Every structure is written in C-alpha cells, then in structure tokens.
Amino acid sequence: MSYEIKGKLDYHIMNLRSILVNLDQVKKKSDPNEILGKTILGKGVNAIASDFFESNFAGKLGERWILGKIKMEDKQQLDNIIREQETSFRIVLNQIRDYLSNISIKKDRMKPEGNSHLLLKKLASIESTSKLRPQVQKCIGIISKIREEPLIYNSEISLLKEKEKKENKAAYYDDLKRLEDGLRNLISSRLTTITNNWWKERIPEDVRLNAEDRKSKNAHPWPWQRPDNPLISFVDFSDYSKIIARKDNWKDAFEKVFRDKELISSKLKELQPIRHAIAHSRNLTTNQIKKLQLYTDDILKAIQNSS
Questions:
Q1: Is the pTM of this model over 0.70?
Q2: Backbone dihedral region for residue 301 (phi beyond 0: left; psi -120 to 50: alpha; all else: beta)
Q3: Which of 20, 68, 86, 208 is the most core-located residue (most Cβ within 10 A)?
Q4: What is the domain partition of the chain in residue ranges?
C-alpha cells in the first residue's frame, strides 16, 4: 500500500511543479530582453509618429502611449497569472492536507489514530514563507521527503497491529516450543545414561502419574503433542523444575548443566505464568517478553554447552 501512497504524492508534486512552470511565464515576461523588445517597439512608434506628424513631440507622445498601454496590459496579464497560480496552489495545498490527514509514518506501537499530525506539522512550516514561488518550492521539498518515509493508511493501522500480534504470538510460541523441546530432550537423554527405567525410577511419582493420566486422556495443549509422543511430553511446565531439582537427579545428571539449582528453579518458576499466558492466547507484558527471550536463550545455551 505504501507504493500507492507514493504514487498519489507524486501526483501532487507534479501539480506543484506545473504551478512553477506557469510562474516561469511571469518571470519570462519580466525578462530584460522582453522589455527591450517592447522598448524597441515603442521607439518604432516614435519614429513613425514623428514622420507622420512631422513633430518630435508627437513621436514621444506616441511612444509613451504605446509603452504605457503595453505596460498596463502586461501588468494585468501577469497579475492574472499570479492570482490563478495562487488559487491553484491553495487548492493543491488543501488536497495535500486532506490526504496527509489520512496517512501516517509506520512506527512500532502505533496508536489506532496514527500520527498524521506529524506530517501536517511539516506542512505547516510553508506558511512562514510569504512569496508564492518559495512556498511552492518548499512544499515540493516537504512532500518529497515525506514520500521517502514508510507510510501507511490510518485505516490499515488496526489491521497491521493485529498482524503484528499474530506474528509476535507465533514467535513466543516458537520460543516456548524450543525451550520445552530442549528441556524434555535433556531430561530423557541425561536420565537414560543413569538407568533405562528412568521414567519410573527418576521421575517424581506425582509428576509421573499426572503425565500418564494426561496421555491416556489425550489431553495436550500444544499441537506438537500427539498421543504417540513419549510420556515426558505430557508433564506440566512446573514439573521440569521438580525433575531437575530432585536431589539425586541434580547430583547425577543436571548439576553440570545448570551449575546453580536455585537459579534454574527460579527461572523456570518465572517462566511458568508466561507459558500459561501463551497457551491461552493472552497478551504478554514487555517484561514477560524480555524474560521469555532471555531465559530461553540462557537455558538452551547451558544445555547446548553441556552436550
């Protein structure tokens, strides 16, 4: 849509440049060469009148008359051109104002009403210039700069925000999946090196029974959890900390990975409400987003470095 906006701004710039072209006619008619030509015409009239009436006075009178008439007609014509261009400029300027009031510069965390006032504020500086030509030139410069901004229609801001929310939720969802995949793989691989019967021997009883019950009922909140997934896929998020921090598991399997039991337990505890918010499609606070990204990276980095 930004392409369409740029096209409409180009149309306004074209109209402004057309006004400059018309103003050039005024400048041309005021050109010394143009005036010289009219002066020569006046001298010609002088000569003709002098010969006809055999009087220098008549010649000078004729010269003054013809030059005065030309000057008056030229002034009237130039004034008409200037007035027409002033009117045209005001019309184009109002059209530009109306258009800018419906578009905004695309930014993060935009309000639904947009920021059209910022664009209109740029345009307001034109009034500080009193003469028409500089006003038109300044307006062209302002619109040309606005044209290079990432622009959006105000009517599309709400749609953009909804799209951003969906994209953000997908990103949070992906972070959480990576984290849970990493934790499950770590638990199963580390405990398997201790005993093949780790599910019964190393998983706390309440965690184990809840996961078995959840799998039997096919109760799983995430699309990646299928009935044929291993039981570790059906533990609650809070269960990861119970498994990792269990005294024998910590000593035999996880101390070398996370180093600090209280720290990893604290991180997982803080991530639990974030996990629930994502599972129920609730919006995350800025602080929750930072924690999710930071803790996910920290935990996965510790897992990767231990392998």
A1: no
A2: alpha
A3: 208
A4: 2-149, 158-306
